[in-house]
Write a structure and sequence with these properties.
alpha+beta, Aminopeptidase, 9-stranded mixed β-sheet, 5 helices, 28% strand
Amino acid sequence: MLQPGFSPFPTLTTERLILRQPDITDDREIFLLRSDEQVNRFIDRPRAITVADARQFIDKTNAGIAQNDRLYWVVCPADPKAGLPGRPVGTICLWNFSPEMEVAEIGYELLPEFQGKGIMQEAVAKIIDFGFQTLNLKSLEACVDVDNGPSIKLLEKFNFVKTGLSENNEIIYCLIK
């Protein structure tokens, strides 16, 4: 469980992105992410069938945020002209916190048309910094399907190292502060 003190939810910004808490108006984008065959190829979860499924997920996620057991951001391109975020193109989260609040798991997803543009690299860098500097985590973990080359490459770019293989045939990566 997270330490108290994340009210309001931490909105994070990078040069090109705004990372913010999801809201119900993100239902279409969350549906696209959770129903896209390419996005879900390497993720073990039920695929969204309807926009109502996405709304349920948003409600469940925000309930978890309110209970301080996860941090979950939608990844939005910043609109430099208006100073406002665009619509979400992906998500990134910290969850599965250890009881001592020293370790968390990072997870992320990005719509296919936005992959390969450095967006997730920028978001992951921000979340690593937030996890280590703000939350004072000692390490971050990630579980990646053995066939998910782009995700493996991304984690290794940030010096995550392989520490094992999960029972679901996922590579477990770890980054120590």
